[in-house]
């Protein structure tokens, strides 16, 4: 018996991908507000913090896709903030861009040795910052492709689960009114969708449903096809928007 989905199966309408979330940490109000506005105009979701302590708290609440941080800050500077991030497995691979007034060669070397991914000296062209951010996110997206192979990057995995949890808490502005679109799901597909919406990954779903990881991968792939989505985050967003899961 074929596992392929018939071509006449109803397809879901495509939805825009979830905008990348950035964390901006800088103690200069004017620069912080200007950079936030420019990044938001470039279709990013931007959380802001005026110091590293608040930045760390925001990291715990909403895991970003990338961090932009000043170096010269009171109490905890950018190097210490980066060291704190790199010491936590959830943030070890999180891309980090340093913004600083220090532009000497030795300072840049120190930044890269500390583990930053890019370094911009103030004043800088905001277009250059956006280009750097997009480049780093594209590289990270390639790593995320491993998630569906059963060996996900821990940072990417944590980010997906954080987004799913925020969706379930109603924090992303999703319209939960069911649409007239009807998606026919089998009982097993529905069970897999419900568990994906709870933030479970393939191995956990397989254990819960007493089946193989390979079978779960097939069901998740079918759900992507039926809903016209390309990632677990988009799938859960679509399911919530159209009343497909509780």
TrEMBL record:
Signal peptide (residue range): none
Top-level taxonomic group: Bacteria
Residues modified as 4-aspartylphosphate: 70
InterPro entries assigned: CheY-like_superfamily, Sig_transdc_resp-reg_C-effctor, Sig_transdc_resp-reg_receiver, Tscrpt_reg_LuxR_C, WalR-like, WH-like_DNA-bd_sf
Coiled coil: none
Record domain HTH luxR-type: where: 178-243
Domain (Response regulatory): residue spans on this chain: 21-137
Keywords: DNA-binding, Phosphoprotein, Transcription, Transcription regulation
Family matches, as Pfam families: GerE, Response_reg
Listed PROSITE patterns: HTH_LUXR_2, RESPONSE_REGULATORY
SUPFAM superfamilies (alphabetical): C-terminal effector domain of the bipartite response regulators (SSF46894), CheY-like (SSF52172)
KW Lipoprotein (keyword) present: no
Organism encoding this protein: Limnospira platensis NIES-46
Protein name, entry field: Two-component response regulator
């Amino acid at each position: 018996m074929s596992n392929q989905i018939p071509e006449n199966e109803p397809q879901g309408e495509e939805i825009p991908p979830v905008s990348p979330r950035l964390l901006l940490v800088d103690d200069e109000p004017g620069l912080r507000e200007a950079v936030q506005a420019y990044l938001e105009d470039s279709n990013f979701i931007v959380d802001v913090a005026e110091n590293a302590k608040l930045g760390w708290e925001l990291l715990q609440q909403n895991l970003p896709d990338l961090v932009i941080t000043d170096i010269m800050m009171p109490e905890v500077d950018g190097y210490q903030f980066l060291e704190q991030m790199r010491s936590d497995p959830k943030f070890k691979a999180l891309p980090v861009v340093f913004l600083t007034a220090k532009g000497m060669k030795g300072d840049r070397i120190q930044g890269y040795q500390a583990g930053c991914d890019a370094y911009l000296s103030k004043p800088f062209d905001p277009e250059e910052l956006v280009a750097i951010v997009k480049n780093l996110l594209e590289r990270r997206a390639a790593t995320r492709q491993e998630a569906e192979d059963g060996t996900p990057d821990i940072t990417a995995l944590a980010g997906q689960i954080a987004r799913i949890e925020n969706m379930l808490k109603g924090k992303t502005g999703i319209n939960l009114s069911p649409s007239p679109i009807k998606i026919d799901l089998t009982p097993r597909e529905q069970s897999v969708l419900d568990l994906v919406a709870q933030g479970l990954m393939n191995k956990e779903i397989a254990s819960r449903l007493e089946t193989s990881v390979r079978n779960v991968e097939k069901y998740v792939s079918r759900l992507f096809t039926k809903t016209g989505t390309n990632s677990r985050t988009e799938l859960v967003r679509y399911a919530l928007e159209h009343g497909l899961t509780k």
